[in-house]
Amino acid sequence: MVMVWLFCSIYWGSLYQMLEHTPNLNCIVLNRDRDTLGNAIVQSLLDSNHGPYPHNTWIEVSENDYPVSDQLMQAIEPKQKYWAAIEIHANATQNYLQARSTGDASWDPQSVMTMYYASARNSVGIPSLILTPTQSIVDAATSELAGNMTSKYLATAGSNPTAMQALSRAPQTLVRPFEMRMDDLRPWTTNVGQAPTFVGMVFLVILSFQVVLSAFGARMGIQQYLHFRSLMALRLITAFVTAIPISLMFTLLDIPFKLPFDGNFSYGGGFMVYWLVTYCGVCVFFLALESSIIFLTPRFIGVFLMFFLIANMSVSNYPVETASSFYLYGYAMPFYNLRQVYLAVLFNVGERSNIMKHVGIIWAWFAGILLTYTVFVWLDYRKRRQAYLAAEARRAPGC
């Protein structure tokens, strides 16, 4: 009962009032049209900042900030300054009016604006927390604008046979003349990617847990005869050596399911980066569990395991920004940083230099746990050694 309320509530809380936190996802809109269509879309997006949830925070940017579309796209990926961007193309209104008046059958409703996003950045959150609300806002704005413009045009040109003939050649200029083209800069190309980037990390912890329990039982019979240096070496070698096949098999498992190791590097290079980062993560899991089992013993190690898993899972699936400020700790958690490296390797998410930032955080976990682990092992060794010597003294002749 206590564990349910203490630990499970952490995960429940990460999903609580998620829609109310969608304004934390900043997006930008660039109006190159500066006419009826562009102004209407921009105003609708800015008005949505104060509308009902879910909605994102939309910021209007200047053409001077992003003179070309490539710079706007780079702000989404790989720089990740914003979660999405809408670009209303130059002369969108005038191009539409000309197509309607001349009956241009080649008029493309999606030529007026484009939305840039990267679904691989967060395949779970982006569709429901960004794309769906934004599409609803844009659809409502364009439908209202198209209705007003069409009614005014028919009122003035309805009796003009030439105008009606032009409309018959290009009916799309009358019915849904404006749509938004969706440009996924980093597409989520396979649902199998959800396995290693979320649930797979849980499996890694569970596998590490099984090895830690087995190693603990195997050491019990001999550790009283070992000096501290030998005991420490035995513990570390067990963890570091066992982590090699676990991380390697975890990486090899992705090959038959055709996960794209060549998303950011060459196929071989991506495989090696993925494997080595996984190895570092497994070592962190081993040391964390080994440290906790010293004081909790196998009887209560499951308590730490549950807490460790829930604390990591709560911040590794949806964007951290969509949870309360309590969950900002997620940026420093192993699951979150492993996931970011996996996304970078498989789907080219983020700048390549960010990989070292996330790896550095994992190494910081490794170094911090290793230092405390050494202290914990020493304290445990001294206690057990004293108990062993005392027992030997009692068994000695003359006692």
Give the key terms.
five-stranded mixed sheet, elongated, abc type-2 transporter like fold, 399 residues, alpha/beta, 7% strand
Number of helices: 11
Beta-sheet strand percentage?
Answer: 5-15%
Low-pLDDT sequence parts = none
Structural class: alpha/beta
The largest pleated sheet is described as: 5 strands, mixed
- The secondary-structure element order is HEHEHEHEHHEHHHHH
What Rg is obtained from the alpha carbons, in whole angstroms? 29 Å
Q: Which of globular, elongated, flat, extended, rod-shaped describes the shape?
A: elongated
The counted number of beta strands is 5
Q: How many individual domains?
A: 2
Can you walk through the features of this model?
There is one protein chain. This protein is an alpha/beta fold. The protein folds into two domains: 18-184, abc type-2 transporter like fold (3-Layer(aba) Sandwich); 191-393, no CATH class. The protein has helices spanning 2-15, 36-48, 69-76, 92-102, 125-157, 161-169, 194-219, 228-252, 267-313, 334-347, 353-395; strands spanning 26-31, 57-61, 84-88, 113-117, 180-184. Helix 7 packs across helix 10 (334-347). The chain is elongated and about 120 Å long. It comes from Malassezia nana. Keywords: Membrane, Signal, Transmembrane, Transmembrane helix. It holds the Pfam family DUF3533. Residues 1-367 form the DUF3533 domain.
What is the strand and helix layout of this fold?
Layout: H1 2-15, E1 26-31, H2 36-48, E2 57-61, H3 69-76, E3 84-88, H4 92-102, E4 113-117, H5 125-157, H6 161-169, E5 180-184, H7 194-219, H8 228-252, H9 267-313, H10 334-347, H11 353-395
Parallel strand pairs: 1-2, 1-3, 4-5
Antiparallel strand pairs: 3-4
